[in-house]
Design a protein that fits this description.
The protein is an alpha/beta fold. The chain has a domain of 169 residues: Uracil-DNA Glycosylase, subunit E (3-Layer(aba) Sandwich), CATH 3.40.470.10. It contains ten helices and six strands; from the N terminus they run ααββααβαβααββααα. The chain has a six-stranded mixed sheet with strand order 1-3-2-4-6-5, with helices on both faces. The longest helix is centred in the first third of the chain and has 22 residues. Bound molecules: uracil.
Protein backbone atom coordinates (compact mmCIF):
# COMPACT_ATOMS: atom_id res chain seq x y z
CA UNK A 1 0.00 0.00 0.00
CA UNK A 2 1.38 3.46 -0.92
CA UNK A 3 1.79 5.81 2.06
CA UNK A 4 0.52 9.38 1.91
CA UNK A 5 3.65 11.56 1.74
CA UNK A 6 4.14 14.60 3.93
CA UNK A 7 4.66 17.79 1.82
CA UNK A 8 8.28 18.00 3.04
CA UNK A 9 8.76 14.40 1.91
CA UNK A 10 7.33 15.28 -1.51
CA UNK A 11 9.81 18.16 -1.84
CA UNK A 12 12.65 15.84 -0.84
CA UNK A 13 11.43 13.26 -3.39
CA UNK A 14 11.30 15.92 -6.10
CA UNK A 15 14.81 17.09 -5.23
CA UNK A 16 16.03 13.50 -5.34
CA UNK A 17 14.44 12.98 -8.75
CA UNK A 18 16.11 16.16 -10.05
CA UNK A 19 19.47 15.05 -8.66
CA UNK A 20 19.06 11.60 -10.22
CA UNK A 21 18.08 13.14 -13.55
CA UNK A 22 21.11 15.44 -13.50
CA UNK A 23 23.25 12.46 -12.57
CA UNK A 24 21.90 10.52 -15.55
CA UNK A 25 22.56 13.48 -17.85
CA UNK A 26 26.09 13.73 -16.51
CA UNK A 27 26.69 10.02 -16.91
CA UNK A 28 25.37 9.84 -20.41
CA UNK A 29 26.68 13.03 -22.02
CA UNK A 30 29.02 15.27 -20.09
CA UNK A 31 31.55 13.34 -18.04
CA UNK A 32 32.89 16.53 -16.46
CA UNK A 33 29.51 18.02 -15.61
CA UNK A 34 28.85 18.46 -11.93
CA UNK A 35 25.22 18.54 -10.84
CA UNK A 36 24.34 21.75 -8.99
CA UNK A 37 23.81 21.49 -5.26
CA UNK A 38 20.18 20.96 -4.22
CA UNK A 39 18.37 23.98 -2.82
CA UNK A 40 18.65 24.58 0.92
CA UNK A 41 16.14 22.52 2.85
CA UNK A 42 16.13 19.73 0.28
CA UNK A 43 19.50 18.27 1.23
CA UNK A 44 19.64 14.57 2.10
CA UNK A 45 19.43 13.80 5.80
CA UNK A 46 22.56 14.77 7.76
CA UNK A 47 23.24 11.13 8.58
CA UNK A 48 24.24 10.72 4.94
CA UNK A 49 26.76 13.52 4.47
CA UNK A 50 27.82 14.81 1.06
CA UNK A 51 31.44 14.58 -0.10
CA UNK A 52 33.64 17.25 1.48
CA UNK A 53 33.62 20.63 -0.31
CA UNK A 54 36.18 21.07 -3.03
CA UNK A 55 36.29 17.35 -3.70
CA UNK A 56 34.65 15.83 -6.71
CA UNK A 57 34.47 12.11 -7.25
CA UNK A 58 35.57 10.92 -10.68
CA UNK A 59 32.61 10.92 -13.08
CA UNK A 60 30.66 7.72 -13.40
CA UNK A 61 31.52 5.80 -16.57
CA UNK A 62 28.72 4.49 -18.76
CA UNK A 63 26.48 2.14 -16.79
CA UNK A 64 26.98 -1.60 -17.47
CA UNK A 65 24.53 -3.42 -19.69
CA UNK A 66 21.32 -4.23 -17.82
CA UNK A 67 21.53 -7.38 -15.73
CA UNK A 68 18.91 -10.09 -16.15
CA UNK A 69 15.90 -9.24 -14.00
CA UNK A 70 16.52 -12.14 -11.59
CA UNK A 71 20.06 -10.92 -10.92
CA UNK A 72 19.22 -7.28 -10.21
CA UNK A 73 19.29 -6.10 -6.60
CA UNK A 74 15.74 -6.24 -5.28
CA UNK A 75 13.98 -2.90 -5.34
CA UNK A 76 13.36 -1.35 -1.95
CA UNK A 77 10.00 -2.54 -0.59
CA UNK A 78 7.09 -0.07 -0.67
CA UNK A 79 7.44 2.45 2.14
CA UNK A 80 11.24 2.38 1.95
CA UNK A 81 11.69 5.42 -0.27
CA UNK A 82 14.91 6.64 1.28
CA UNK A 83 17.89 5.51 3.31
CA UNK A 84 16.25 7.13 6.32
CA UNK A 85 13.17 4.94 5.84
CA UNK A 86 15.43 1.88 5.88
CA UNK A 87 17.29 3.13 8.95
CA UNK A 88 13.99 3.74 10.74
CA UNK A 89 12.77 0.24 9.87
CA UNK A 90 16.01 -1.33 11.09
CA UNK A 91 15.84 0.64 14.34
CA UNK A 92 12.53 -0.99 15.27
CA UNK A 93 13.19 -4.38 13.66
CA UNK A 94 12.37 -7.50 15.69
CA UNK A 95 12.89 -10.04 12.91
CA UNK A 96 15.67 -11.90 14.75
CA UNK A 97 16.72 -12.34 18.39
CA UNK A 98 19.51 -9.75 18.11
CA UNK A 99 17.01 -6.96 18.66
CA UNK A 100 16.70 -8.02 22.29
CA UNK A 101 20.37 -7.38 23.07
CA UNK A 102 21.13 -4.36 20.87
CA UNK A 103 21.69 -0.91 22.33
CA UNK A 104 21.20 0.74 18.95
CA UNK A 105 20.71 -0.59 15.47
CA UNK A 106 23.52 0.35 13.08
CA UNK A 107 21.95 0.84 9.65
CA UNK A 108 25.01 2.33 7.94
CA UNK A 109 26.04 5.79 6.87
CA UNK A 110 27.66 7.80 4.11
CA UNK A 111 27.01 9.41 0.78
CA UNK A 112 23.57 8.41 -0.58
CA UNK A 113 25.05 8.68 -4.09
CA UNK A 114 28.27 6.87 -3.27
CA UNK A 115 30.13 5.28 -6.15
CA UNK A 116 31.70 2.83 -3.70
CA UNK A 117 30.00 0.94 -0.89
CA UNK A 118 31.79 -1.05 1.80
CA UNK A 119 29.94 -3.89 3.49
CA UNK A 120 31.21 -5.35 6.75
CA UNK A 121 29.95 -8.12 8.95
CA UNK A 122 28.12 -6.73 11.97
CA UNK A 123 28.40 -3.95 14.53
CA UNK A 124 30.78 -4.43 17.44
CA UNK A 125 30.57 -2.90 20.91
CA UNK A 126 31.55 0.64 19.81
CA UNK A 127 29.15 0.60 16.88
CA UNK A 128 26.32 -0.77 19.04
CA UNK A 129 26.88 2.06 21.54
CA UNK A 130 27.01 4.83 18.91
CA UNK A 131 24.64 3.52 16.24
CA UNK A 132 27.33 4.11 13.59
CA UNK A 133 29.30 1.56 11.54
CA UNK A 134 33.05 1.02 11.81
CA UNK A 135 33.85 3.52 14.56
CA UNK A 136 36.11 1.27 16.66
CA UNK A 137 39.67 0.12 16.00
CA UNK A 138 38.71 -1.66 12.75
CA UNK A 139 36.88 1.49 11.68
CA UNK A 140 39.99 3.61 12.21
CA UNK A 141 41.88 1.29 9.89
CA UNK A 142 39.03 1.32 7.35
CA UNK A 143 39.10 5.14 7.40
CA UNK A 144 42.79 5.08 6.53
CA UNK A 145 42.25 2.48 3.82
CA UNK A 146 39.64 4.79 2.27
CA UNK A 147 41.97 7.78 2.47
CA UNK A 148 44.74 5.70 0.88
CA UNK A 149 42.40 5.21 -2.07
CA UNK A 150 42.18 8.97 -2.47
CA UNK A 151 38.66 9.13 -1.05
CA UNK A 152 37.09 10.43 2.14
CA UNK A 153 34.82 8.44 4.43
CA UNK A 154 31.99 10.87 3.60
CA UNK A 155 32.23 9.99 -0.08
CA UNK A 156 31.54 6.28 0.31
CA UNK A 157 28.72 4.41 2.02
CA UNK A 158 29.53 2.00 4.84
CA UNK A 159 27.11 -0.68 5.99
CA UNK A 160 27.05 -4.15 7.48
CA UNK A 161 25.23 -7.37 6.69
CA UNK A 162 23.77 -7.37 10.21
CA UNK A 163 22.32 -4.15 11.57
CA UNK A 164 22.45 -5.33 15.20
CA UNK A 165 25.39 -6.56 17.25
CA UNK A 166 25.73 -10.29 17.89
CA UNK A 167 26.40 -10.70 21.63
CA UNK A 168 30.10 -11.00 22.39
CA UNK A 169 30.87 -10.29 18.71
CA UNK A 170 30.14 -13.88 17.82
CA UNK A 171 29.82 -14.79 14.15
CA UNK A 172 26.51 -13.94 12.47
CA UNK A 173 24.14 -16.92 12.27
CA UNK A 174 22.71 -17.69 8.81
CA UNK A 175 19.07 -17.02 9.90
CA UNK A 176 20.15 -13.61 11.27
CA UNK A 177 21.85 -12.74 8.00
CA UNK A 178 18.81 -13.92 6.04
CA UNK A 179 16.48 -11.79 8.18
CA UNK A 180 18.68 -8.71 7.88
CA UNK A 181 19.71 -8.89 4.21
CA UNK A 182 16.58 -7.11 2.90
CA UNK A 183 17.81 -3.90 4.58
CA UNK A 184 21.19 -4.11 2.86
CA UNK A 185 19.66 -5.06 -0.47
CA UNK A 186 17.31 -2.08 -0.25
CA UNK A 187 20.24 0.23 0.59
CA UNK A 188 22.15 -1.04 -2.43
CA UNK A 189 19.08 -0.62 -4.64
CA UNK A 190 18.70 3.02 -3.56
CA UNK A 191 22.39 3.98 -3.64
CA UNK A 192 23.21 2.09 -6.83
CA UNK A 193 26.96 2.05 -6.17
CA UNK A 194 29.29 1.33 -9.06
CA UNK A 195 31.33 -1.06 -6.92
CA UNK A 196 30.63 -2.95 -3.70
CA UNK A 197 33.59 -3.95 -1.56
CA UNK A 198 32.78 -6.82 0.80
CA UNK A 199 34.99 -6.80 3.88
CA UNK A 200 35.74 -10.28 5.13
CA UNK A 201 34.28 -13.70 4.56
CA UNK A 202 30.97 -13.18 6.38
CA UNK A 203 30.02 -10.25 4.14
CA UNK A 204 31.26 -12.12 1.07
CA UNK A 205 29.36 -15.28 1.93
CA UNK A 206 26.13 -13.45 2.72
CA UNK A 207 26.22 -11.33 -0.44
CA UNK A 208 27.44 -13.98 -2.87
CA UNK A 209 25.65 -16.99 -1.39
CA UNK A 210 28.82 -19.05 -1.33
CA UNK A 211 30.96 -20.73 1.31
CA UNK A 212 34.20 -20.42 -0.65
CA UNK A 213 37.33 -19.42 1.25
CA UNK A 214 38.13 -15.71 1.26
CA UNK A 215 41.53 -16.37 -0.30
CA UNK A 216 39.76 -17.78 -3.36
CA UNK A 217 37.18 -14.99 -3.54
CA UNK A 218 39.39 -11.93 -3.20
CA UNK A 219 41.24 -9.93 -5.85
CA UNK A 220 38.59 -10.22 -8.58
CA UNK A 221 35.13 -8.95 -9.33
CA UNK A 222 32.00 -10.97 -8.71
CA UNK A 223 28.50 -9.99 -9.73
CA UNK A 224 25.97 -8.81 -7.20
CA UNK A 225 22.78 -8.28 -9.16
CA UNK A 226 24.60 -6.39 -11.89
CA UNK A 227 26.94 -4.51 -9.57
CA UNK A 228 30.62 -5.53 -9.51
CA UNK A 229 31.56 -6.80 -6.07
CA UNK A 230 35.12 -7.25 -4.88
CA UNK A 231 36.01 -9.17 -1.74
CA UNK A 232 38.92 -8.21 0.47
CA UNK A 233 40.11 -8.80 4.00
CA UNK A 234 38.16 -7.38 6.94
CA UNK A 235 40.04 -4.57 8.73
CA UNK A 236 39.79 -6.50 12.04
CA UNK A 237 41.62 -9.40 10.39
CA UNK A 238 44.23 -6.98 9.01
CA UNK A 239 44.80 -5.60 12.51
CA UNK A 240 45.57 -9.16 13.64
CA UNK A 241 47.45 -10.13 10.48
CA UNK A 242 49.29 -7.06 9.17
CA UNK A 243 51.28 -9.22 6.74
CA UNK A 244 48.15 -9.47 4.58
CA UNK A 245 47.78 -5.68 4.27
CA UNK A 246 49.81 -5.78 1.07
CA UNK A 247 47.25 -8.11 -0.47
CA UNK A 248 44.39 -5.91 0.74
CA UNK A 249 46.04 -2.89 -0.86
CA UNK A 250 46.27 -4.80 -4.15
CA UNK A 251 42.53 -5.53 -3.86
CA UNK A 252 41.72 -1.87 -3.26
CA UNK A 253 43.80 -0.88 -6.27
CA UNK A 254 41.58 -3.12 -8.41
CA UNK A 255 38.59 -1.17 -7.10
CA UNK A 256 40.35 2.14 -7.75
CA UNK A 257 41.12 1.15 -11.32
CA UNK A 258 37.46 0.26 -11.88
CA UNK A 259 36.38 3.65 -10.51
CA UNK A 260 38.99 5.53 -12.54
CA UNK A 261 40.79 6.72 -9.41
CA UNK A 262 44.50 7.25 -9.92
CA UNK A 263 46.55 4.85 -7.84
CA UNK A 264 49.44 6.38 -5.92
CA UNK A 265 52.75 5.13 -7.33
CA UNK A 266 54.11 4.52 -3.86
CA UNK A 267 52.57 2.75 -0.92
CA UNK A 268 50.58 5.74 0.35
CA UNK A 269 50.75 5.13 4.07
CA UNK A 270 53.33 2.68 5.38
CA UNK A 271 51.78 2.94 8.85
CA UNK A 272 48.61 1.46 7.42
CA UNK A 273 49.96 -0.89 4.82
CA UNK A 274 53.34 -1.82 6.22
CA UNK A 275 56.67 -1.43 4.41
CA UNK A 276 56.82 -2.68 0.86
N1 LIG B 1 33.19 -4.78 12.15
C1 LIG B 1 32.22 -4.81 11.23
O1 LIG B 1 32.11 -5.75 10.45
N2 LIG B 1 31.39 -3.80 11.19
C2 LIG B 1 31.48 -2.74 11.99
O2 LIG B 1 30.65 -1.84 11.87
C3 LIG B 1 32.52 -2.72 12.92
C4 LIG B 1 33.37 -3.75 12.99
Amino acid sequence: MTRARHPAGQVADLARQVREHLGRVRESRWPGFDAPKPAAGTEPAPSHPSPPPGRRAAPRPAPPAAAPAAARPAAAPPGWDSLDDIAAAAATCTKCPLHATRTRAVPGEGNPRARLMFVGEAPGADEDAQGRPFVGAAGKLLDRMIVAMGLAREEVFIANVLKCRPPGNRDPQPPEAAACLPYLRAQIALIRPEVICALGRHAAHALLGTQEALGRLRARFHDFGGTPLLVTYHPSYLLRTPADKTKAWKDLQIVMKRLGLSAPVQNPDPDVWGPR
